[in-house]
């Protein structure tokens, strides 16, 4: 079965047929208790689907849509939530109260248009979904009073729109449907020797439409940090009609319409296809792990590297708390992972210069750089700290195991200018540590740079602590810690998200970031593209027509 057609599991990362190995869970439990000092953790069992709370559908689709719509319990449960920690907790415990009444799986753009027409005419809230991996609460139906303002809800699942429709090899662009999942995109491009070089952490479980709608951040630490950089043109179907931008390399004709779609989070319409910039696989790669005695020393080295315009593909800081959280407790210093890649020239000169900069800033690279790829007559060292970190980070076990082990785990990510980073970082660590102590009695917070820019880093904090056995209390603990952290972010006049999107979870702080009249402008645009206010109500912004 292809990745594009395999549904995501009801809770946690992975596909529906994935499971958490009991031995891995026990190992994680022992690690939390022995290495991180957590009190003894319970090991809970997920509520079976047949015992879960899933309300009966409030509406049925009309006969003309019935052939691609479903209201069965399993389908509706899998399209109830995204991947925010509270959503995973509720799903684990069988609470699918917000389940959509209908899951539509359109086969064509015409099917999408028909669903939007039906929803508009009948006051049905529409939640567009590709992979459903969002962590900001933007891929679930509305709840409470907002839900009561609608006749029902439909999850618009785009996974059947999963083709690379056309490839322009000369211009290195490809026309790709919005429901195409990450691995499927590159599988289809492989015959042309091309790839869409955008790899968010959710790559295997997410797809193009969701990436564009949420302004996804990818694996590039510099230059092409967000999906926006790869979008040449885009088509979005809206209740009021089709919104399609011209296919041009660049333009200076007023505000960029592509940028209106990127980050719109399904509130204006549904991204059904886009022309994307693609490129060959790199043939030269160089990477290295560099160690520092402090986060500020490491940050200074990174600042010098990006301001020297060396443009590393990977330039990430992981503090010693983060590496220990993933079981690499033998790495007892701050680690910077550097990586360079190229399709046509050796990368060793670039990484050699970056390592010189690191050494000048106090860094140490005991193993030296590792060169590999088809352009080098070498293979990647399987035992390097870069490889070990990548393997530990990609396993995803820490996040999934947190749920049955009653661990409060969350992230806060923002971006800050270099001059303000030291003071902000100190304030952030103090805030989160205090909140962990107040809510959970103890806990840990780690620091990472996910992306870096000449004027500052994108800083990513992860917290985890022993949580309450009661799911409602555990969600409350997460919410209070997250709110305290986001308040600190906004007290420093920053952004509540660098690449996790706004959704519902960050909306209050997003309103503090943007000018008031900008929010009013977005609501006016929504009023034109979605006059009935049925598109993803309550996400990104509130409007007069979405049930408020």
Descriptive report:
With 548 residues, the protein is α+β, with helices and mostly antiparallel strands. Among the domains are: 3-15 and 52-160, Uridine Diphospho-n-acetylenolpyruvylglucosamine Reductase, domain 2, CATH 3.30.43; 284-395, Alpha-Beta Plaits, CATH 3.30.70. 32% of the residues lie in helices and 19% in strands. The chain has 17 helices and 16 strands. The protein has helices at residues 22-34, 73-78, 85-92, 109-122, 144-148, 182-189, 208-214, 257-261, 295-307, 320-325, 348-360, 385-394, 397-402, 421-440, 471-491, 507-513, 516-529, and strands at residues 69-70, 102-104, 124-129, 152-157, 164-168, 173-177, 231-238, 241-244, 270-277, 284-292, 314-318, 334-342, 370-372, 407-415, 444-453, 456-466. The strands form 4 sheets. A 5-stranded antiparallel beta sheet has the order 5-6-9-7-8. Strands 1-2-4-3 form a 4-stranded mixed beta sheet, with helices on one face. Strand 15 and strand 16 (456-466) form a beta hairpin. Helix 3 (85-92) packs antiparallel against helix 15, helix 9 packs across helix 11 (348-360) and helix 14 packs antiparallel against helix 15 (471-491). The chain is globular and about 65 Å long.
């Amino acid at each position: 079965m292809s990745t594009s057609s395999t549904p995501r599991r009801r809770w946690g990362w992975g596909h529906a047929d994935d499971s958490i190995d009991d031995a891995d869970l026990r190992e994680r439990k022992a690690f939390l208790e022995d290495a991180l000092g957590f009190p003894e953790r319970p090991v809970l069992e997920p509520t079976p689907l047949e015992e879960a709370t899933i309300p009966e559908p409030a509406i049925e689709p009309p006969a003309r849509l019935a052939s691609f719509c479903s209201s069965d319990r399993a389908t509706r449960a899998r399209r109830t939530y995204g991947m925010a920690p509270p959503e995973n907790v509720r799903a684990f415990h069988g609470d699918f109260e917000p389940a959509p009444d209908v899951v539509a799986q359109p086969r064509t753009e015409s099917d999408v248009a028909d669903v939007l027409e039906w929803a508009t005419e009948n006051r049905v809230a529409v939640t567009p979904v590709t992979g459903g991996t969002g962590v900001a609460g933007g891929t679930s139906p509305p709840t409470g009073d907002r839900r009561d303002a609608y006749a029902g809800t439909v999850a618009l699942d785009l996974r059947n729109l999963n083709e690379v429709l056309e490839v322009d090899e000369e211009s290195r662009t490809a026309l790709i449907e919005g429901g195409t999942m990450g691995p499927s995109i590159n599988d289809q491009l492989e015959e042309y020797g091309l790839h869409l070089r955008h790899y968010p952490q959710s790559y295997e479980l997410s797809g193009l439409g969701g990436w564009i709608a949420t302004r996804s951040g990818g694996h590039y630490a510099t230059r092409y940090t967000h999906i926006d950089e790869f979008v040449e043109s885009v088509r979005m179907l809206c209740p009021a009609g089709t919104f399609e931008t011209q296919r041009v390399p660049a333009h200076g004709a007023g505000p960029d319409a592509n940028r209106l779609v990127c980050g719109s989070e399904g509130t204006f319409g549904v991204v059904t296809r886009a022309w994307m910039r693609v490129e060959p696989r790199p043939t030269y790669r160089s990477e290295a792990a560099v160690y520092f005695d402090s986060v500020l020393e490491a940050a200074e080295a990174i600042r010098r590297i990006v301001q020297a315009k060396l443009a590393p593909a990977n330039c990430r800081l992981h503090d010693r708390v983060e590496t220990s959280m993933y079981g690499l407790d033998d790495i007892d210093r701050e680690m910077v992972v550097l990586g360079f890649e190229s399709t046509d020239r050796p990368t060793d000169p670039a990484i050699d210069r970056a390592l010189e900069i690191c050494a000048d800033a106090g860094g140490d690279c005991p193993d030296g750089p590792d060169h590999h790829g088809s352009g080098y007559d070498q293979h990647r060292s399987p035992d390097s700290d870069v490889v070990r970190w990548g393997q530990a980070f990609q396993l995803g076990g820490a996040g999934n195991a947190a749920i049955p082990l009653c661990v409060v785990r969350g992230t806060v990510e923002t971006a800050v200018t270099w001059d303000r980073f030291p003071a902000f970082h100190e304030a952030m660590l103090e805030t989160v540590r205090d909140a962990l102590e107040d809510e959970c009695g103890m806990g840990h917070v780690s620091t990472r740079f996910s992306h870096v820019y000449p004027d500052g880093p994108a800083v990513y904090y992860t917290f985890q602590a022993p949580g309450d056995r009661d799911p409602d209390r555990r969600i409350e603990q997460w919410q209070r810690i997250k709110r305290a952290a986001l308040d600190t972010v906004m007290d420093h006049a920053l952004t509540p998200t660098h690449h996790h999107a706004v959704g519902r979870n960050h909306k209050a702080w997003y309103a503090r970031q943007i000018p008031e009249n900008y929010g009013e402008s977005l609501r006016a645009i929504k009023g034109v593209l979605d006059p009935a206010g049925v598109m993803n109500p309550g996400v990104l912004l509130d409007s007069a027509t979405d049930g408020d």
